[in-house]
Design a protein that fits this description.
The chain is of the alpha+beta class. It contains 3 helices and 8 strands, in the order H-E-E-E-E-E-E-E-H-H-E. The longest helix is centred in the last third of the chain and has 20 residues. The chain is globular and about 40 Å long.
C-alpha cells in the first residue's frame, strides 16, 4: 500500500467513525513518484452500509495551497458539515446561513498526545480505548481492499 497505507489509514478511521462501515468500494491508483514505494495517489468511491455515498482523494505527491492534512465535507439533506482546516468547523444550514465552530487545537486535546492520554486513562481509570486493534485493522483493511479494487479494476463488496 505504500503511501496510501501510511496516511490513508488515518483518513479511513475518520470516514468510518463519521459515516459507519463501508459496503462497497471502487478505487483508482496512480504511481506518481519513482522514489516512493508503491502508489502515491488514490481516489475512491464508497457506499456505506447506511446507504450514504462518499468520495475520497489522497495524494502524497500533489501540491496544494491548502496545508490541511485532511479536508472533510459531508453533504446532507438537512445541511452541510465542512471541516476546511484544523481551526474550525462550518455548519451550512438549508437556508444557507453558516455557523462556525472553533476547534480546540491545544496539544492536550489532539493527535498522538490524545491517543496516549486515552490509553493511559483506559489503564488507570478503566475508560474505553478509542482506537482498538480491531478498529485499526478495519482501517487498514479498507485501504488494502481499495488497492485491490484498483489493481483488479473492479468494485469490491466488503
Amino acid at each position: 500500500g505504500g503511501q496510501m497505507l501510511d496516511g490513508g489509514v488515518h483518513h479511513a478511521a475518520a470516514l468510518r467513525m463519521l459515516m459507519g462501515e463501508v459496503e462497497w468500494i471502487q478505487a483508482f491508483l496512480k504511481h506518481g513518484h519513482s522514489d516512493l514505494n508503491g502508489p502515491t495517489t488514490m481516489t475512491m468511491n464508497l457506499r456505506f452500509r447506511s446507504g450514504a455515498l462518499g468520495s475520497y482523494v489522497y495524494s502524497a505527491v500533489c501540491q496544494d495551497n491548502d496545508p490541511a492534512f485532511m479536508r472533510l465535507t459531508i453533504y446532507g439533506s438537512t445541511g452541510t458539515l465542512d471541516l476546511p482546516d484544523k481551526q474550525g468547523l462550518r455548519l451550512i444550514h438549508p437556508d444557507r446561513t453558516v455557523e462556525t465552530i472553533a476547534l480546540d487545537n491545544d496539544a492536550d486535546t489532539n493527535g498522538y498526545y490524545g491517543e496516549f492520554l486515552n490509553f493511559y486513562t483506559a489503564i488507570r481509570e478503566g475508560a474505553p480505548v478509542v482506537a482498538t486493534m480491531e478498529e485499526s485493522y478495519k482501517d487498514m483493511e479498507l485501504i488494502l481492499r481499495a488497492v485491490d479494487s484498483a489493481e483488479e479494476a473492479r468494485v469490491i463488496l466488503l
